[in-house]
Amino acid sequence: xxxxxxxxxxxxxxxxxxxxxxxxxxxxxGRLLQIPQQTKQSDAMEYAGPTGELRLRNPPPxxxxxxxxxxxxxxxxxxxxxxxxPITGRRACPWPIxxxxxxxxxxxxxxxxxFWVFSLLTMAAWHLQLLPGYTWLVxxxxxxxxxxxxxxxxxxxxRDSASGRTRAxxxxxxxxxxxxxxxxxxxxxxxxxxxxxxxxxxxxWTDRFDSVFWVLAGIGGWNLPMxxxxxxxxxxxxxxxxxxxxxxxxxxxxxxxxxxxxxAAGMGLVSVLVLAALRHGLFLLVxxxxxYILVILAHILGRFYFRFDKRIGWDV
Length: 316
What we know:
single chain; 316 residues; mainly alpha; two-stranded antiparallel ribbon; 10 helices; 6 strands; 6% strand
């Protein structure tokens, strides 16, 4: 058995010996890890005698045959890893209340505040027109950054909920770089565009919103939750492979149908509340409202995988 520790969140992991050299994602923070090759200590070291020292059988050139033991008081201080309890997936409250409380922790509130402030900056750039002639370009650039950042955090929510956790993930201490942010955000944006593409092409070609348009839009909406799960938990090429998500839909058809209807109702609720807030001039409430509901929907999507991963069969 190979034992390793995630350098981002200190999650202790175990893997079978045959998995040495493979790459996996940490079930807690999602960081990509490489499992080290297993080596037998007896093949690399030998007992040196009553001093209790271990000597290398084949030391590198220039290295001594053995290193003297260092007294404990001369060792540098090592911070103990944070204790991580087992992930059971159990909720602290009844599930309807616990789902509504999902973003109600410090990481969830911080990300909501960042999204709200950045949304205000985007609206201010549009209304104040600080750069005449470039207002549209500035607005679209800020809006693109806002959407990619939101999609990145929603991907973290899905990945974290799929591992069984019941509170919003911390993407600050487990920061993996700008490249990972762009990868997750643009992957989800590409999948949404792909699902909407047939209906969009049809309405642009015919300029009609007839029954064919609604059928194409319904097919895209039906496939979208499974496609998003595939691109977040697997990768973009796997999400584009129908063999992954079509089989998962078939094996989970009754519960997946309920999931799609629930997510569609949630998106409808977002639209109704946003229109009501705009009608009453409550513009400042729109960003936190959208953030809160989308995070909850992403949590439910990840929780769906946690509950039915055996049927889905992706072996994530």
